[in-house]
Each structure stands twice: as structure tokens, then as C-alpha cells.
Amino acid sequence: MAKAGKILVTGATGFTGQALCRALSNSGWMVHGLTQSGRQSMEACTLHQADLTDSHSLTRVLEAIRPDQVVHLAAKAFVGSSDNTAFYTTNVIGTCNLLDASRSVGIKRAIVVSSANVYGVPKDNSAITEEVWPAPVNHYAASKLAMEHLARTYTSSFPVVITRPFNYTGPGQDISFLVPKLVKHFLDRAPSIELGNLDVFRDFTSIEDVVSAYVSLIASDVDSTTLNICSGTAVSLGELIACLERLSGHRIDVKSVEKFSRQNEIPVLLGSNEKIKSLLSWDITKSIEDILADMLAKGR
Questions:
Q1: CATH number reported for the structural domain that contains residue 22 in this entry
Q2: pTM here?
Q3: What is the distance between the alpha carbons of residues 137 and 63, in angstroms, rounded to a whole number?
Q4: Which GO terms describe its molecular function (predicted)?
Q5: What is the residue range of 30's domain?
């Protein structure tokens, strides 16, 4: 098991980054966060400002910190974005810049966060294992797969663990994401909601369980590999709405609107978590009902 030391978390001020920095700090790590925003301070970590596309600023920051490990969360992540160039500039070139800087200071391991979107449209509805051949269907997913391939070229210098998280959510996630948008409408007792394609199934994990997976991985001796992070259960959009109606006691009229439908929508995205459970002492603790109840109780 790795001893707690210095760790750098990119995307530290984001939804996942803030939760991970708090958990690592509570576990005894000296946490440094990288951000491109103007935010100057965060209780759980020391923040540093640098642009992933600026290799010189990244190298200066890493030389000053000299972390033992790097967790790379930062990404251009909104699938519906029309700025396709930014996906590749940030997710591919930015990641290579970070790994180059990490190699120059002699880090012990990098954990690079990819996405389950790299799998594309599954051939059937069975749980996707890490051995399934990726087939991305949008620029976000394609940039993440390119990032994975290039990240693996660094494994001769240090271990690189690639994670492929499936959908996850929890209190505090931005309402541009599906589940917080749903929860907000139920909290507001809205009479109706406009959504895109209703016939989709997703594998949802709580933010707490995702962070727990990262903390366990960071403390482990797991070498270069690829790991899904998921619940192993897929629920439909209709099931999410029915669960929220049951928990809140509020009924809502759902309208399917074309402008919210994505081209090349993946109908079912269900992951297998057997590999990560076999390598780490980790498992799911919260069901989708638990997650939704938390979000309603905490005002999203």
C-alpha cells in the first residue's frame, strides 16, 4: 500500500475535484490542486493556477510541488459542446503536457481519468468490461480515447492507471447535468420538464462511491491498467423520474423536446465493476434511490 504523501489533483475546483481533495486531505495526504479558474483558495488543498495547454507553466508548478502521485481529473467534458477543437487541445495535448511535466519531476504514478463514453454503442445490453473494444461516437469520447492511447506511452517511465467512470452524480453537481436538473424541477414543484430522448438507460454511481474508489486506488499498489468505475446497474430515465415522484410526492409532466436530444445517443450504457472490486477493497454503498434522496434532502 502506498503511504500518504504529496499528491496533485487537476480540476481540483470541479464537482469531483473538490470531493476528492477533501477525502484525500482527511486520509492524511498533502493535497495540491491545479485549476485554470480564478479561484484562489480551497480548504482541503493548496491551489495552483496553470493552463494544461501551457507546458512551461505546468512544469514550473510540478517542479515546485514535486508530488508523489498525480490524479488527472481536468478535462473539456461537456459532450454537447460545439467546440470540437477544444476537446483535443485540452484532453489530448493538455494531458500529454501534464504527463511530460510529471515525468520530468519523477512522479511515482499517474491516475488519468477517461470516460465510459469511449465504449460507444454496445452490441447488446450486457455489462461492459474493460476488454470491450472502444468505439467512440462523438468528439468528446474520441478525444478521451486518443488521450488514453498517448497516456499509455508513458508507462515505461511510471505506472499510468486509466479510469473509465460511468455516469455519477450527487449533491452539488451543476444543473447542466441530467440528474441535478431533474432534482431541481422536483424541488421547485415544477408542473413540467423538457427532456431529450427518454428511452435511455445509464449506470449511475454516487459521487461518494466514485471518490472512495479513487482514494482506495491512490492508496493501493495497482500498476498500469484500465478500470471501470460504475455501479453495475443501469436505470432508465423513466425510472429516475418515477423514483423522484415517489420520494418527493410530486408528479411532473415530462415533455420530450428535440433540441435536448443528442445525435448518436447511446441507448444503454451499463458497466461491469468486477475488475476494480477484485483489485481494491471497494464496492458500491449507495443505490440510485439513496443518491436521489440525498440530493432532495440537501437541496440538490
A1: 3.40.50.720
A2: 0.94
A3: 38
A4: GDP-mannose 4,6-dehydratase activity; kinase activity
A5: 6-169+204-231+272-286
